[in-house]
Amino acid sequence: MKAIGLTEFGxxxxxxxxxxxxxQPGPGEVRTRVHAVAVNPTDITFRSGGRAAQLAYRPPPYxxxxxxxxVVDKLGDGTVGRLAVxxxxxxxxxxxxxxxxxxxxxxxVGEASVVHAPRGFAFPEASTLLLNATxxxxxxxxxxxxxxxxxxxxxGAGAVGGYAIQLGKADGLTVLTDAAHRSAxxxxxxxxxxxPQARRGPDARRHERTGGT
Length: 213
Fold this sequence. Notes:
This protein is an alpha+beta fold.
C-alpha cells in the first residue's frame, strides 16, 4: 500500500510517498480503508523528531497522523461485533505504535480506538473530530468543575476551543471565551459571554507573531 512517511526527521520536505506491506488486523483489531485524515500540530512534532525516542525500537519509514475517517474493510478475530465491514468510522491512532499513523491507504488499530462516524458529515469533516474533541474533553475532566461553575476558554474560535465551549455547556458550566476579531464570523459557538481577544502585554506579542496559535 501507499503511505506518506519519513526516514529522517525535519521539515515538510522529509515527507515522501513510501510503499509498505498491506497491514493485517490481529486479534481485537480493525482495519480501515482511509478516506480522509486530519493534519494536527502533533504531526509536526512527530515529523520534526519530537517523538524520536519512542520510535527508536523500530526502523523507518515512520508514518505520521492521529486522526482518520474511512470505512472498515477487515476485522480481526475476537472483535465484539460493534463494528462490521463497510461501516463508516473514525479512529484515534497513536503513530508511535507498531502499525504507524494515519497517512496511509489502510490503518490498523485496536477496536476500542474506532467508533462509527457521525451521521451527516463527509469524511474530511469527520476526520477532524477525535483528537480535538478528546483534548477538550480530557481538559474539562481534569478540572472536575461542578455544574454552575464559570470557566474561561481562550481562543474559542479554534477547533479545541469550539469543542471545549460546547462540552462545557453540556456539563452545565457557564462558559466565557474570547476570539480574534477576524474569527467572529465563525465562532465562538454557544458561549455564554463571547468577547474580543485582548491584545496587551506578552500575550499580544505572541498573538501577532503566531497568528493566534
